[in-house]
Please model this.
Amino acid sequence: MSDETSGVSEAEIAVHWGEESYFHPPASFSAQANLQDKNIRDRFSLDNFPQCFEEFADLLTWDRRWDKVLDTSDAPFFKWFVGGRLNASYNCIDRHLEKHSNKTAIHFVPEPEHEAIQHMTYRELWVRVNEFAALLRDFAGVKQGDRITIHMPMVPELPIAMLACARLGAIHSVVFAGFSGKAAADRIVDSESKLLITMDSYYRSGALLDHKEKADIAYEDSKNQGHAVDKVLVFERYPGRYSSPTPIVEGRDIIVNDLLKDFRGQRVDPVSVKSEDPLFLMYTSGSTGRPKGAQHGTGGYLSYAAWTSKNVQDIHPEDVYWCMADIGWITGHSYIVYGPLALGASSIIYEGTPTYPDAGRPWRVAEELGVTIFHTSPTAIRALRKAGGGNPEKYNYHFKHMTTVGEPIEPDVWKWYYDVIGKKEAVIVDTWWQTETGGFLITTMPAIDPMKPGSAGPAMPGIHPVIYDEDGNEVPPGSNKAGNICIRNPWPGMFQTIWKDPDRFVSTYFAKYNKDPKSTDWRDWPYMAGDGAMQAADGYYRILGRIDDVINVAGHRLGTKELESAALTVPEVAESAVVAAKDDVKGIMPEIYVSLQPNVEPTEELRKRISDAIAKEIGPIAKPRAVWIVPDLPKTRSGKIMRRILAAISNDNNDVGDVTTLSNPETVDLIRKLHTK
Ligand code: WTA
Model:
């Protein structure tokens, strides 16, 4: 948490834009929407909690119905739909075969435009998941409860691998492909994964990237940290044609596409797991340098992903749904894979960057596939706008529904999204949620709530937010004051714990506003999200950004401490401090300030090495916008680095605040001069 002397959070540098007027959902949208019940929030009032959430679970097929909706006996480790049994892979595939065997489950759009789009039916998905599950079970010895790290790009083999794990009751941990081999290693070690599943290469911005080299680094580094995977399973981007310059290591690496031939036609019965058995881990950044594995259960999570996909994303059987997020993040898990497939929808997987080869690419895809629902981030919208927009009006597509997620969206960017991309025909939902929450928490319900640019909206039915000040007093709506947004009640999509770190789960998310650590009453355990927020008089929430040492860079969640320790792997660096700086396209970008060891000269080469070290440790997405080599970092007399002052300088804010308590106030002007040069 930031305090007076150390940091300045995203929430504090947020621009406070004014109140906007409402936009109403088009009548044509409301008339066809899955959810038209204006009284929905009454049905989901706290008086009806937790039974109201049975409606979510009823969207799934259970092998055994639950006995208890919510078990709070070990609060805040809540258990949903206890006694129930089900399988996520069965729910996303098998149960659709009777009616939708020949329907497209996944449209795969390769980045190179001359490569044909591939359409995989539910039947084919079923065949491929079964064969790969058989390989995992019979070749690799995977059993229920094993953890499997999957470090793969945006290709259909990624959900195939996830669903094959789920079929066996194994817990997948997908690592974003843009992350480094080192980042994958840390996650392999923490989860004690049995296998690493990867791919030889993939396309990004026109280049065929060598991905296999990261698997070698991940293997070696995790082994050095004391945990080696049994095998590295490598899918080929072009089946039958290994496409990486990094050689295969005999005995350790297996080319999946070769081995799959032995499993042709094999079927694997889905393992019926308990509702609260873990489905996956998703590592995310927090205040410390160590990423935490958010553990999601099966029944609660899948119910929540399915209900929100149906009623917030408004997916109907005939829709073609395109979420442009990456499956390596929670958005892709819930809203490319699990939610849409649980509903039997057709979901698009796009391999590459939205602006490749030009900003018209998304609109050509939308036209070709007849996309009706589009889902992306403010960063992608800003990037498309900056690249000229790609002339959506020239293409014959019509979105009925669009989503924005991941960062606050400025009202003028929202309006550009609405006017230009949505052609003034589409309803927009600005959805606020987190890795930890499994699905949307704050959003308008698209057919019944008006939209307000720059505000995420009221809460989801069944979600009861509250904004607390530092002392635990409620900050009332319309007071124009910001505070810490919390949720009063548990909900089915909520994560279960942090993998192997239950204490951190309690201390990070609950301790601050819990008054009785022994209580088994859910009312005593409001969930603290870690975001600053304000509530307008009409009840709509505006999310300001993180209140802790986390920054959302282009919608990717990174811990400033992770970047700081990455910089310290360069031996010449003595100290480092990362601050959040506002950016026109990416929303927020990190800037890093470093001081050097004695007698080391600041050079361009060193600056580059620091930036490269961050890319190597974490991934290129974490590269700072600037590396400032300074004589000394501003510090208090007790030696705390004053990141607040650095943040003011990085955000061109002349008011650096009180510097009299510094032990080295003269550094402030020096740094400012460097910065303006
Ligand atoms: C931010 C991504 C404003 C927020 C789903 C949150 C948002 C963090 C919004 C979680 C939104 C997400 N408006 N800010 N609509 N959605 N955020 O875990 O700071 O990658 O805490 O999950 O993204 O990022 P995460």
